[in-house]
Write a structure and sequence with these properties.
This protein is an alpha/beta fold and about 240 residues long. It is built from seven helices and nine strands; from the N terminus they run αααβαβαββαβββαββ.
Amino acid sequence: MASAPEIERAATLAFFEGRGRSAEPECVYSRTMYQDDRPDLVRARDAHEKATILPRLEVGPESRVVDVGCGVGRWADALVGRVSAYLGVDFSPSLLAIAEKRFASRPEFVFQQGAAEDVGAMNLRLDPPFDVVILSGVLAYLTEDGAAHCLSGSAGLLTRGGRLYLREPVARERPFTLSRRYSEELGAEYSAKYRTVEQYRLMLESHAPGLSLRHEGEALPPALQNRRETSQHFFVLVQNG
């Protein structure tokens, strides 16, 4: 029996570098949310996610946030004027360049290059602990080992009572992996692991055992989803230690 395809870090980096260097889309969030020909859908998905999740993160004027896999700073936009410090980490220099340009006038928003699976061992530009860790659409691009390191490292950055937000595309039925599959829609080779909700629950239990589940559910309503095999699911967990 042939082994299952695996995610290649170099190929994933090349994909996101291409997204960052491509022609400027109508909606900047399309660089990481795709749907290049549907900026209306991108904006609606973004607005719904933030409206659903932001109250559950319980950020305040003194909150410190680290956004792992920050891309162009999509979540940073929602946190302007709400938190005291924000650190965005991403492994794509081209995406980080866009984020840094967009927030150049805000010294409390800083960005740093680094891989999500290494975040727990990195010398971060802002010292931990943090009140919130955001992992929005990150683990789908990591191997099992990489996702485990990312989760455990992210959990270790939280202060007591801090919140970890995880949102990922999930397989509706059985898990599957795309490895360097050419996408007509994206015009590039694309790789991602579509795990099930139950697999993510088990990963959180194994690799973030000090966290308790506070909220969980579908990240988008049916009207904002257009994939038959996948949906978007979220978890909000609280650090007990």
